[in-house]
Design a protein that fits this description.
Layout: E1 9-15, H1 21-37, E2 41-47, E3 62-65, H2 76-83, E4 88-89, H3 93-100, H4 102-109, E5 119-122, H5 128-136, E6 142-146, E7 156-158, H6 161-175, E8 178-182, E9 186-194, E10 197-198, E11 202-205, H7 213-217, E12 223-226, H8 232-249, E13 254-262, E14 267-273, H9 283-290, H10 295-311
Parallel strand pairs: 1-2, 1-3, 3-4
Antiparallel strand pairs: 5-8, 6-7, 6-8, 9-10, 9-11, 9-13, 11-12, 13-14
Helix pairs in contact: 1-10, 2-3, 5-6
Length: about 325
């Protein structure tokens, strides 16, 4: 790992305005503490669209985003940072926008050849009866998901087509764009990507129906398992697909790719999280720790990657002033 100058100043941006605000504040504190242990000069800022003063602080060398959800992962803040020609850690606005929209992300990664669950986009004019007919084409069990939200907010797994159709309309009314996705029975796996390289695969075993918000952040009974996939060729395939998805979307520095490994060992792509959580329950820090990196080393590597990206002209698709 390249040696980092000790007087670099990092501003950790957390909080925000989304449903995941509290998780973001936890992530931000963990990241700030890690960077302090790495020997950097660190300040923290609770940022929002109407609280951007920290971006005027010219003593800051790198902005480290620890935000989740809207005005965090959706590209809005990233675009502001790009327009101000500021150095920041994480993916740029273009990649963030694509990854945050589950349908746009699926469309983007298709060229990698990764297998995708079938899905339906719910339209405003869709009736319950029309959706019932469409859902039957996916199978009797489906996932109802807001297209643009994080931490599994609004996600429901339903095994009755009529109930699923009604739930889809309710979700669309509450969250906006909604999708109905084919349910793939199998093992939930996630692959952290650090600077274009895969971290150890984690298999998630939840006591819940799926890896929902409570399982992610509140339930200490959720299991995070390493080395559960024994086939080396399958591991290589999963890692290759995850990195290809990361690169195809245009992600930078770090992200997390979520998949389902089906009962016949086919990896199905679900989504990319461009600003993964950094709490005690979070997956990328666990995987990095498994790979021999402390939280301090992980965060320092992300900061180093951000400075290198900035030196080379910024993020892909960034509009300079």
């Amino acid at each position: 790992m390249p040696e980092q100058k000790k007087n670099i100043k990092v501003a950790v941006l957390a909080g925000g305005i989304s449903n995941e605000r509290d998780i973001s504040l936890q992530s931000g504190k963990t990241i700030a503490d890690a960077l302090v242990r790495a020997g950097l000069d660190v300040i923290s800022s609770d940022i929002a669209p109407d609280k951007l003063d920290i971006l005027d602080d010219r003593s800051v060398d790198v902005f480290f985003l620890a935000l989740h959800g809207k005005f965090g992962e959706d590209g809005e803040l990233q675009q502001i940072l790009e327009q101000r020609d500021l150095c920041f850690a994480g993916s740029g606005s273009t990649a963030s926008r694509i990854a945050f929209n589950k349908i746009a992300c699926k469309e983007a990664v298709q060229i990698t050849g990764v297998t995708l669950p079938l899905h339906i986009s719910v339209q405003d004019a869709d009736s319950t009866e029309h959706l019932i007919e469409l859902i039957r084409q996916l199978g009797t069990k489906v996932a109802i998901k807001p297209v643009a939200d994080g931490s599994s907010f609004g996600v429901r797994i339903i095994d009755d087509v009529k109930t699923a159709a009604k739930a889809a309309i309710e979700t669309s009314e509450k969250f906006g764009d909604c999708m109905i996705e084919q349910y793939i029975p199998g093992r939930e796996i996630t692959i952290g990507i650090l600077n274009g390289k895969p971290l150890p695969i984690i298999e998630i075993k939840s006591k819940h129906t799926f890896y929902d918000f409570d399982a992610k952040y509140l339930d200490d009974n959720t299991e995070y398992l390493f080395d559960t996939i024994k086939d080396k060729k399958l591991i290589e395939k999963i890692n290759t697909l995850a990195v290809e998805c990361f690169n195809t979307v245009g992600c930078s520095h770090w992200s997390r790719v979520d998949m389902i490994l089906s009962e016949d060992n086919v990896p199905y792509f679900l989504e990319i999280n461009t600003l993964p959580g950094f709490t005690s329950h979070s997956l990328v820090p666990m995987a990095a720790n498994k790979a021999g990196l402390t939280n301090a080393q992980l965060c320092l590597e992300i900061v180093n990657a951000a400075t290198e990206t900035f030196k080379k002209g910024g993020h892909i698709g960034a509009k300079k002033k």
